[in-house]
Amino acid sequence: MKYSRVLLKISGEALAGDQGYGVSGEILEKIATEIATLVGTGCEVAVVVGGGNIHRGVAGATAGMDRSTSDYMGMIATVINSLALQDALERRKVYTRVMSAIAMQEVAEPYIRRRAVRHLEKKRVVIFAAGTGNPYFTTDTTAALRANEINAQLIMKATKVDGIYDKDPMKHKDAIKFDTLSYMDVLNKDLKVMDSTAITLCMDNSMDIVVFNMFEAGNIARVVRGETVGTTVTKTLGGKR
Fold first, then answer.
1. What fold characterizes domain 5-240?
2. How many CB atoms lie within 10 A of CB 164?
3. How far apart are CA 73 and CA 44, in angstroms?
4. pTM, rounded to two decimals
5. Alpha-carbon distance 42 to 75, whole Å?
6. Mean of per-residue pLDDT scores for the chain
7. Which carries the bigger pLDDT value, residue 61 or residue 164?
8. For 89-109, what is the mean pLDDT?
9. Rounded average pLDDT over 67-85
C-alpha cells in the first residue's frame, strides 16, 4: 500500500442514492463493504460524512433561516449519517468510533485529536461527525482540517463521477477530464471540487486530494495502492487527458 493512513470524504447526497433524500440502505452497504475491504489491508481509515441528504445549511439560509442555526442543523445531520455508517461497518466486524465536534456523549465520543490518532493506531475506523463544531464551515473544510490534524497522507473525495472535469459530465458529453490539477488550478478554474477554504488548507499543508468514483467496486483500495484512479489534486501543474 502506498498510503498507510487516509481520510475518506463522503457527501451526504451520495448516501441518499436515487431516492434523493435520507439514507439508502443499498448505498450504505456498498460503502461499508469498500471501507471494510480497505481496513482489511491494514490501512488506517478516517471518514468524514456530509449531511446534505438530510439538511443543507446554505440552502436553509437562502430560504430565510438564520445561517448559524441552519448550519448547526446540518452538523447534527452528519451525526445521523455517521451513526448509520458506524452500524453498517460494525455489522461487518469493523471496529468503529464516531467522534463528534458537538458534545453528545450518549451517542458519540467528543473529538479529541490524540484519542482519534490512538483509535487509528488500533486499526479502528474513526468517523468525524458534526463538522468543525462551528457554523460557516463545510464538511469539505472539516475533511481538510481533520486530515491534517491526524497526519493523514491523503484525502480521498468519493463522488458519483470518475474524477474532475472542466464542466459537469452528467450534463455535457464533451466534458474533458483532468488527470492531475494543482491547488491553484482548482481555485482559478472555480472547479467546485471542494470549497476554497478546504483547498487552501490542503495547499498550505501539501495535502494531496484524489477525487474518484466511489461506486466502482475496488476503487478505494486502488487509490490506496497508488494506482492512477480519478483525478489527483497536488502541487504539480494541471493537465487534461
1. Carbamate kinase (3.40.1160)
2. 29
3. 30
4. 0.92
5. 30
6. 92
7. 164
8. 97
9. 95
Angle between helices 139-149 and 196-204 (to 10 degrees): 20
CA-angle at 161, arms to 158 and 163, nearest 5°: 75
Per DSSP bridges, beta strands 44-49 and 125-129 are parallel
Reduce the secondary structure of the chain to three states and give it as a string.
CCCCEEEEEECHHHHHHHHCCCCCHHHHHHHHHHHHHHHHCCCEEEEEECCCCCCCHHHHHHCCCCHHHHHHHHHHHHHHHHHHHHHHHHCCCCCEEEEECCCCCCCCEECCHHHHHHHHHCCCEEEEECCCCCCCCCHHHHHHHHHHHCCCCEEEEEECCCCEECCCCCCCCCCCEEEEEEHHHHHHHCCCCCCHHHHHHHHHCCCCEEEEECCCCCHHHHHHHCCCCCEEEECCCCEEC
Q: Cell match 501539501: residue?
A: 206
- Stretch 7-25: mean pLDDT, rounded? 89
C-beta neighbour count of 60 within 10 angstroms: 17
All three cell numbers of 233, joined, read 489534486
Amino acid code (one letter) for 221: A
